[in-house]
Amino acid sequence: MKISIAIALFISTSYLTTAQTLGKMVSKGKELTTSSSSSQSPLSNDEVVSGLREALTTGAKTAASKAGVTDGFYKNAKIFIPWPAEANEMKDKLVKLGMQSQVTQFEESVNRAAEEAAKSAFDVFAGAVKGMSVGDGFAILNGSDTAATHYLREKTTASLTEKFKPIVKTAMEKVRVTEYWTPLVTKYNKIPLVTKQNPDLEAYVTAKAIDGLMLLISEQEAKIRKDPAAQVTDLLKKVFGKK
C-alpha cells in the first residue's frame, strides 16, 4: 500500500513538473514570436552611416547656433576660452601690475573671435561629415555616447584646422584681438629677466574654437542616442531607437 502511494505521488509530481516546464516553453515561444513580429527590419550599413551623418549634421548645426551668438563662448563655462596656459606667468605678473581689466578685455576678445568663427562653422563641419566614410558604422553605433564625435574629431581635425584658420583670423581682426594683446605682451616683455612671450593666438583660438564646438556636438550626439525626443527624423528614430 505504501509503495502504491509513493508511486502515485511520484507520478503526480513528475506530471506537474513537466506541465510547468511545457508552460514555460510555450510562454517563451509566444514572447519570441511577438518580439520577432514587432521588430523592425535589420539596419543596413548604409542606414547606419546615413544615421551617423545625420546625427553629426544635426549636432553641428545645434553647436554652431549655440556657440555663434554673443556670449556663446564667453559665458559658457564648458567652452570658455581662457588666457593661454603657456602664458599664465605673464598673466599673473600683469595682474600684479594692476592690469586685470586689460587681461579681462583680452579674454573677452578671444571668446568673441571664437563666437564669430562659430557662425561659419556649420558649413565647415557639414562638408567634413558628408565626406566621411564610415566602414565600421556598427562599431560606432554601438560605441560610447560620443563615439561618432570622436571619429569625426580624429578623422577631420587636420582639415578642419586648415579650413578654420582663415575664418578665425578674420574673426580676430573683426573683434581686434591683437589690439588688446599687443600692449599686454609688449608691457610684459619689458619686465627684466622674464621669458619673452608671444603665443600664436591664431592657432590657439582655432584649436579652442574647434574643441568647444566638438564638445557641443558630443553633447548633442549623446542626447540623440538616449532621448527619443531628440530623434527628430525617421532615420534617426530607426538607427538610434533600436539601441
Average pLDDT rating: 81
Q: Give the total of beta strands.
A: 0
Write down the Rg: 30 Å
N- to C-terminal distance: 62 Å
Q: Determine the fraction of residues in helical runs and give it as a percent range.
A: over 70%
Shape: elongated
Range of strand content: under 5%
Pairing-aware structural class of the strands and helices?
mainly alpha
Sequence of secondary-structure elements: HHHHHHHHHH
Number of helices, counting only DSSP H or I runs of 4 residues or more: 10
- Main beta sheet: strand number and arrangement? none
Q: Which residues sit in consecutive blocks of at least 5 with pLDDT less than 50?
A: 1-39
Explain what this protein looks like in three dimensions.
The chain has 243 residues and is mainly alpha-helical. It is 73% helix and 0% strand. Helix 2 packs across helix 10. The longest helix has 37 residues. The protein is elongated and about 70 Å long. The N terminus is likely disordered.
Question: What distinguishing features does this structure have?
Answer:
243 residues, mainly alpha, 73% helix
How would the blueprint of this fold be written?
Layout: H1 2-38, H2 45-67, H3 88-96, H4 100-119, H5 121-130, H6 137-141, H7 147-174, H8 177-189, H9 201-226, H10 234-240
Helix pairs in contact: 2-4, 2-5, 2-9, 2-10, 4-7, 4-8, 4-9, 5-7, 7-9
In short:
The chain is an all-alpha fold and 243 residues long. The chain has helices at 2-38, 45-67, 88-96, 100-119, 121-130, 137-141, 147-174, 177-189, 201-226, 234-240. Helix content is 73%, strand content 0%.
